[in-house]
Amino acid sequence: MKAAVLEKLEKLVVKEVATPQVDDDSVLLKVRACAVCGSDLRIYRTGNSRVKLPQIIGHEISGEIVEVGKNVTRVQVGDKVALGADVPCGECVFCEEGIGNVCQSNHAIGYQFQGGFAQYMVLNKMTVLYGPIHKIPDDGVFAEYTLSEPLACILNAMENSPVTIGDTVTIIGCGPIGCMMVPVVKRMGAGKVICVERNAERQRIALENGADIIVDPSGQDMREEVLKETSGMGADVVLTATPVPQMQQKALTMVRNRGRVNFFGGLPANNCEVVLDTNLIHYKELQICGTHGSLPRHHRKAVHLISEGIINVKPFITHYYPLSEIQKAFDVAASRQCMRVVVEPWEEKI
Q: N or C: which terminus of the chain carries fewer CB neighbours within 10 A?
């Protein structure tokens, strides 16, 4: 098969590799689409302790089951499916408590397990038993269901930092995930959504998908604008959908007393130490949390939201590339002049 192998940092090579073999407990997936996530870019640039190179990365995946082991009953040949990324081990105390996204083994597709920038991939026994594999409609568009993975992560964030009816929500960063947060928090009852973004095209997409106010940090004071829009109180919920450390600092200054701040976007490993004014947390009694990945149940719900048209993900995909042009796909994704970039490993489209 053809695969894009990350041989070393900043070196992606499209090459012929052996098609992975299925055992009695695993499944072979024909990958139809795999989107480029910001974490893929971080792995590409700076690596990740869970990714041993060379490796095939990519974790926002959809495709078709083409072979199943004799012990597998969860799926069958011909099923169209979407995948989440985080795979619970199913055995540790965190998995027993139903929070396998913080399982200490921290297994994930595109990290320890082969990812989706390839024509085929094996879903191993752990993934088949416990992982986020969910069927999509027969007429579902594969590219759109790659966004079920980041949508699942957003749903996890909404459990950690819930939005209630009438809340003002500030979203810092309007990349694909930040923009996708807008219709989600609106559906949850947000009365006003303030988006902080300097890129004009991303501002436009945020507004078209339900944002009420845009703050451009290149020419406006973020804190002052949020306070102005909230009668001096601050937002009820602030979500940092950006890998910029300074935005985590600023988030504490624009949330109301007893408000909720979610550090959603992960930071680069070489730039992740942030100095916070903990007096703001103390005196304002803020609730600060992070969100890492998602659970299979979040992914199942994300697939449902897409398939029922409750959340329209089409506006959040702007570029498509064949596997042979994956380097261009990564370059465009890194440029920020786009929403999600989708790689399609096969020439034919379904």
A: C
